[in-house]
Amino acid sequence: MNTRRWQIDPGGRSLPSLRNDPAVGEAAAMLRAGKLVAFPTETVYGLGADASDDLAVRSIFRAKDRPSDNPLIVHVAEESVLYDWIRKMPETGRRLASAFWPGPLTLVLEHRGTLASSVTAGLSTVGVRVPSHPVARALLFQAGVPVAAPSANRSGKPSPTSAEHVWGDLAGRIHGLLDGGPSGVGVESTVVDVTGPTPLLLRPGGITLDRLQQVTPTVEVDPGLQGGAVVPRSPGVKYRHYAPRGEMWVVAGSGEAQVKRVQALADEGTAAGYKVGILTTEERRKRYRADWVLPCGRRSDPASVARNLYRVLRCFDELGAEWIVAEGFEGKGLYDSVMNRLSKAADGRLIDTNTNLSP
């Protein structure tokens, strides 16, 4: 399969201008024709298909090698479009949508049964969101269909935050790629289930828990995020995700104890004959020795860490790292999202220097 690639610079352009861009028009026509198109969002790049076309949606799973029981998020251009596909919008959902849409928030709602069954993995609910990236919104307006779009990567790999990441994973497996530059947030959307009496945070992401609770104080964290066994109502809660090829460990904690444990674990990998990488921050990059020591941002700036996390994990793959030791991060907000992704990437291999717990 030949993959068509368009480059489009959204900088300073109005939404009407982007909607009329020939590249957006071609990509939208592909979606309406049941084809797969990758496109930028403010979180990561998504791989889109018409969410009402079951054959098109199934091709997402084939292109990504994604398990079919992992539900997809549906993207729409504006909230008003949703009512063709969902049963109702609870008041809690209205408040959250008003505060954070367009933006990196996914709401889990009851659907009407008119979406492709492969979108919902047989569930009575579906995750929906209105992205804020101008190229994504222009594409969704022009396509005129709801677009199911998981991250545009091979299943299990770190999510793509640039068109180059998508091209490396999916060129020849999809029909089109809209290159709109790097993503801004760097981790996927926050997912909140608003179908029950208490809204539940299913996946931390670009909208932090404290910001959600400023709008709706009753938001609680789903037990599944603490390791409970639950049916996957959201992408990113069941399978190993976001993972580099090398064996990865995460060392939680703070201060000198954390630094010493990271180095000791890296030295174990070196002694065993592995090519070793350490994931750290700018503040500590000179404290470590390994084949590669890569910073993913500044510890004092959680947004920079979230924005660069997947890029650095992909760098380890490109370099051939076989044993990766990552510093963990303490604190709430975006660091909750970062630690969620690191734990998934390490498949639960977490050492906590505060408690001396390890798998």
From TrEMBL:
Keywords for this protein: ATP-binding, Cytoplasm, Nucleotide-binding, Nucleotidyltransferase, Transferase, tRNA processing
UniProt subcellular location: Cytoplasm
Domain YrdC-like: residue ranges: 21-207
GO molecular function: L-threonylcarbamoyladenylate synthase
Gene3D superfamilies found in the cross-reference section: DHBP synthase, Threonylcarbamoyl-AMP synthase, C-terminal domain
Entries under SUPFAM superfamilies matching the protein: YrdC/RibB
Predominant location category: cytoplasm
UniProt keyword Kinase present: no
Tree of life domain: Bacteria
PANTHER family: SUA5, THREONYLCARBAMOYL-AMP SYNTHASE
Protein's name in the database: Threonylcarbamoyl-AMP synthase
Organism of derivation: Desmospora profundinema
